[in-house]
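Collaboration report, partner site 2.

Our partner group contributed sequences for two proteins of shared interest, and the home lab folded both. The records are reproduced in the order in which they were received, starting with the first partner submission.
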Amino acid sequence: KYPNANFLVTGSLGPGGNAHGPDEKLHIPATKAVTTCLAAAIASLNA
């Protein structure tokens, strides 16, 4: 849809996560999975 985009937006905040609020919640297992996946994708760019 946006072939010339120069950025990638990711996140692991789900419904009820209250993004940027005083009671923001982050699901640690999901965040670890997103981080691992993103790290593998970035590493494959240099392979």
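Second partner submission, folded after the first:
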Amino acid sequence: MRSAARFSVGLALCLTLLAATPQQDEAAAIDQGKLVQPGRLVVAGRRLSCGGTATLLRDFEGFAVSSTVIMLNMQALKDLPRPVQWLIYYHECGHILFGPSETAADCYAVRRARREGWLNQQALEDICAVFNIAGHGPVHPDPEDRCNQLRQCFAKKGTVTSR
């Protein structure tokens, strides 16, 4: 019975968020507390999408997380270089698609960025420089290992797996 009540409260909250969100052709990622429908998110001048996944813009500790939506903290992201912002978004998209593996999410982000044409070797090194300054937190590999993995993913062709 409690789980049904929790589900009802959660559903009501989701419906309230959806009803309170004005429909627009696109949403610039500057407004906190806003649910952005799939395909309508613009971050640092680039339209970003993750299939049918919506994005919730809100304040929280950290840059981004994913579950059934991608949550972005635009206050934390706004001063980062544009390619870093985009890569963080696609990293979270990688979690939506491939699960909890940090390496799989990173590989997905790097390969998608390369396929879209905005990630080259120099941009990847710039991203690694930001990671080295920002640190790694409790869930990501240390910056040097992570950047080595990013470079390997950049060099490889093929698909990403969750392993």
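Feedback sent to the partner group on the second submission included the following. The longest helix spans residues 2-20. The two ends are 37 Å apart (CA to CA).
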